[in-house]
Design brief:
Elements: H1 18-22, E1 31-34, H2 40-51, E2 55-60, H3 63-70, E3 76-80, H4 86-98, E4 105-108, H5 126-141, H6 143-148, E5 153-157, H7 181-203, E6 209-214, H8 228-233, E7 236-238, E8 244-246, H9 257-260, H10 262-269, E9 279-282, E10 285-286, H11 307-321
Parallel strand pairs: 1-2, 1-4, 2-3, 4-5, 5-6, 6-9
Antiparallel strand pairs: 7-8, 9-10
Helix pairs in contact: 4-5, 5-7, 7-11
């Protein structure tokens, strides 16, 4: 297990906001890529990075939605990207590399949660595809630009949902077992954490460090696939306008979007993390390990920060995508 996987007492907490984290940070001359950086906590992440002086590329499946949401925010470039389409990933990465610019921050923020069974063009289950494999291929394709920056950070958005499941290396795409959307989601979020561990191992000597992040519970568009059964399971209600809010008896404390983006920004800019990487973070600090206690409201399960599993996932991801380091 990673010996670095323990809190460092950052001085921040679950109520800290992304703006508080970035106060006094100067990102002038830095280029950041934020997948899904035009909605939810991705939009807030983009806003804060721009405010700190960074230039941000916000790749989007829907350029029109991105233009509307990012209107009035200077320093943002919108490019086309579908993380479930290998050709789209290659085209986006080629355009970035052709510009000759180093990439200082790659924030793998985009994701999908609990949809009905869907597959990409290669037959991969869509959550494993979009949440993990697409970002894996993107990081590989952008590798020269990350190394060129001389100190890049890659942040993979995981989730407390990683506790739902480890990675099923024998059948990650539900070809031989019944599809369980929450198991699939948990697998993809475990994969995000293991990806950060694997990338950090390969990037250290090149100045590239990687972190995984649990942003906290935030009610955003990520819940768009929730069924009535899901709402009941998590004690949520759907308003008449379609928005989702906590149920009357809910005891879960949800974060605001500003709080939800805070740990991502902390991992991206904190001087306290200099020389560190490969760790799972939450509430603006490195999370504790919670072996055997899946009911704990905080902490990371051992299967999401296991170096051997990270290597196993890396090899599997190379086989599926055809890319490796």
């Amino acid at each position: 297990m990673s010996t670095a996987q323990k809190p460092i007492v950052s001085g921040y907490n679950s109520t800290s906001t992304a703006e508080e984290i970035a106060k006094g940070i100067d990102l002038s001359g830095k280029l950041a890529i934020v997948t899904g950086g035009y909605s939810g906590i991705g939009l807030e992440t983009t806003r804060i990075l721009v405010k700190a002086g960074a230039r941000v590329i916000a790749p989007a499946r829907s350029a029109e939605k991105a233009r509307v949401n990012l209107e009035g925010l200077p320093g943002v470039e919108i490019e086309s990207l579908d993380l479930t389409d290998p050709l789209s990933i290659d085209a986006f990465a080629h355009k970035v590399l052709a510009s000759g610019r180093p990439v200082s921050l790659l924030i793998n923020n985009a994701g999908v949660m609990a949809p009905p069974l869907t597959r990409d063009s290669r037959g991969n289950e869509i959550q494993f595809s979009g949440n993990h494999l697409g970002h894996f291929q993107l990081a590989r394709q952008l590798w020269p630009a990350l190394v060129k920056s001389g100190g890049a950070r890659v942040i993979a958005l995981s989730s407390r949902g990683h506790r739902f499941s480890g990675v099923d290396f024998d059948d990650p795409n539900f070809n031989h077992k019944s599809y369980d959307k929450w198991q699939a989601y948990g697998q993809s979020k475990t994969a995000n954490a293991l990806f950060a561990l694997g990338l950090d191992k390969r990037g250290q000597l090149h100045g590239v460090r990687a972190f995984s992040v649990h942003p906290g519970g935030i009610l955003t568009d990520l819940t768009r696939h929730f069924t009535d059964e899901d709402l009941k399971r998590f004690d949520l209600l759907r308003s008449s306008d379609g928005t989702i809010k906590p149920g009357a008896s809910s005891t879960h404390v949800f974060k605001t979007v500003a709080q939800g983006a805070a740990t991502t920004v902390w991992c991206a800019v904190s001087p306290r993390l200099q020389g560190m990487g490969g760790v799972y973070c939450e509430n603006c600090d490195i999370a504790e390990m919670i072996p055997g206690d899946v009911t704990s409201p905080t902490g990371v399960a051992p299967h999401a920060v296991d170096p051997e599993l990270a290597e196993k996932l890396w090899k599997l991801s190379e086989q599926i995508t055809g890319f490796g380091l």
